[in-house]
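>> received
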Amino acid sequence: KLRVRIAGRGADALALASIVDGAGYDTHLQLLDTDDIETAHAAGLRSVQPLSTPSELTTTYDDAWTAFVLLFHDQDWEVPLLQQALEGPAFYIGAVGSQRTHERRVRALLEAETNAADIDRIHGPIGLVSSLRDASMLAVSTLAEIIEYFPGKARAAPVKTAYILLAAGASSRFSDGDKLLADLDGLPVLERAGASVNADEDVLRLAVIAPTDDARRHWLRKSGWRVVENPDTREGQSTSLRAGLKALESEQDVEQVVILLGDMPNIPASHVQSLIRCADIPDISAIMSQSDGVLTPPALFKRHHFNALGALEGDRGAKALFLGLQSGTLSVDLSPDLAVDVDTLEDLNRLRETVNA
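>> returned
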């Protein structure tokens, strides 16, 4: 659901907050002046936060469905508020003012050592209609622009997504047979990992295995996965990723791929869908999960990254490419209890205890 965080003062901030709240969207208002705060409360706005000093900004909780709008003409506040927003995953960051005002603001951000690629995320001037002075018209114009960029809006032609499930590992550290076929609450670990893709979803699902993995092949085909063989599994995970991408070469309508691991059985389908929704954010082309500050699969990459992914070598996976990108990346939080993988029998037993609990 769309969430709009507004920092500002005066009629512009109050008008935008009222229109967003009236439309039923989650509205969070940050105000400097006491009179504005009283007016906001009188108008029935529930989430109103006072701003105290630029050096002590309150923690924000922006996510990939948050739009941040700055309605300030005060450089002491503009720079820290925009820097704070740029540190998060908000899909839209906008700042009020003319083109000349925005150019001045950009120079101030650069002087404050803000990354130029991050500054490019800022929309300025804001709104679909330029040079509006009426607060209500500016509010409507700004909300319209936010909706234009909102990643959750309906698409006339949905992006076609393919899934690659890497399931060719040798289970060398697992002391009780094949870890991917081990039972976890009545189902093999591999089948649980594959369930992170909705079964009723009409999409291309590729699972990469070693040529001798007949038992894994059985479970995967039973679950609706198209099996791809990787004869070079001993040369590292990159070879499995390459095999999956090679199988996509003839699928020219596939615009992005989600990469999953067969030994991560706790990934919910809702998290995978979150990655896909975030891929609608303009200029975002690579997304990874993040658990306790550590990047982890699942990951999503747009098609123009496929060649670079296929060029990885050894045990280097998608994370190596992600870390090397200068822009266009985003990470989506994943709870540590969902990010677990099964490498040893002890890992599996801990998961069994969690499931039983």
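>> The longest helix spans residues 135-149.
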